[in-house]
Amino acid sequence: MRKCLLITAIILSCMVAAAAIYELTPAGTVQGMKARVKTEAEEVENDDTVRILFIGNSYLKRYNMTQTFRSLCLQNGLKVDVALFAFDGAYLRDFLNIKHVTGTLRKGRYDIVVFQEESHCVRTETAATAAVIVKMIREAAPGTRFFLYETMSYRGKPEEQELFTSAYENISKITGAEVIPVGRDFWKYSEDNPGLKMFDDGQHP
Predict the structure, then answer these.
(1) CA–CA gap between residue 89 and residue 67 (Å, rounded)
(2) What pLDDT, on the 0 to 100 scale, is given for residue 11?
(3) Which position has the higher pLDDT, 42 or 182?
(4) What residues contact 96, with CB distance under 8 A and at least 6 apart?
(5) 3-state secondary structure of 205
(6) What are phi and psi of 27, to 5 degrees?
(7) Which of 150, 147, 143, 141 is nearest to 181 (CA)?
(8) Is 98 exposed, middle or buried (0-12, 13-18, 19+ CB in 10 A)?
(9) Using the 8-state DSSP alphabet, how is residue 171 labeled?
(10) 150 backbone φψ class: left, alpha, beta (φ>0; ψ -120 to 50)
(11) 165-172 long-range CB contacts below 8 Å, 24 or more apart?
C-alpha cells in the first residue's frame, strides 16, 4: 500500500507542476563539471521515515516537484525525507564525476532512489550508468529500492512516448529498478484535459 501511494504521489507531483500557473526561470547549462547540485532534505527523527533520493535534471528540479511530492506524501500519512541531486541538462553519467554525489551514494542512507535521465540519451547509454549507480548504493545498503522516472515525449509528439517507455522498460530489465509511468500518465492526463496547458516549452511540463 505504501509503495502504491509513493508512486502515485510522484505521478501527481508531475501533473501538479504541469497544471500550475508559474513563473518560468532560465534553464541552466553544464560547463565542464562546474555543476550546480541542489540538495533538498527534511530531517525527521522517527525511525519509520522513508528516505528518498531523486537524481536527474530539470524535469525534477523545476517548479518544486520534489517538494510537491513530499507534501502529497505527508498529506497521506507517509513520513518522508526527500533529497534531490539535479541540474539543468544533466545526464546520469555526470553525477559519477561529482565527488559530493558519489560520496553520498556510497553511504547508502536512502531507502528509495529515483532516477530520471536526459531525454536524448535515454535509449542508448542510461542502462550502463544506472547499473553502476545501483551497484554503488547496494554495496552499502542492499535493501535500497530503485525506481525509474519515465519522462514524457516532447510536445506535439505523443506517438513517440512508446519509444521512451520501451527504453525505460529495458533499463528496468537490466537494473531491476521499477518504472514509474509518468510519461504515459502525462499523455493520458493531457488527452483527458485538452484545454489544459501541459508544457511550458517544447519538452518540460
Answers:
(1) 20
(2) 53
(3) 182
(4) 102, 129, 132, 133
(5) coil
(6) -75, 145
(7) 150
(8) middle
(9) H
(10) beta
(11) 166/123, 167/122, 167/123, 167/126, 168/122, 170/127, 171/122, 171/126, 171/127, 171/130, 172/148
pTM as predicted: 0.77
Three cell numbers, residue 133: 549507480
| Of 84 and 190, more confident | 84
pLDDT at 147: 94
Dihedral of CA 104/107/112/114: which sign?
A: positive
- Secondary structure (3-state) at 114: strand
Q: Residue 86's pLDDT band (boundaries 50, 70, 90)?
A: very high
Please report the pLDDT score of residue 3 as a whole number.
57
**Angle 22-23-28 (CA atoms, 0-180°, nearest 5)?**
120
Q: Which residues lie across from 78 on neighbouring strands?
A: none
DSSP label at 64?
G
Q: Say if residue 16 is exposed, middle or buried (CB neighbours under 10 Å; 0-12, 13-18, 19+).
A: middle
Alpha-carbon gap, residue 141 to 21, rounded angstroms? 40
Beta strands in the chain (DSSP E): 50-56, 80-86, 112-115, 145-149, 178-180
Does residue 197 sit in helix, strand or coil? coil
Going by C-alpha positions, the residue among 46, 50, 134, 123 that lies closest to residue 91 is: 123
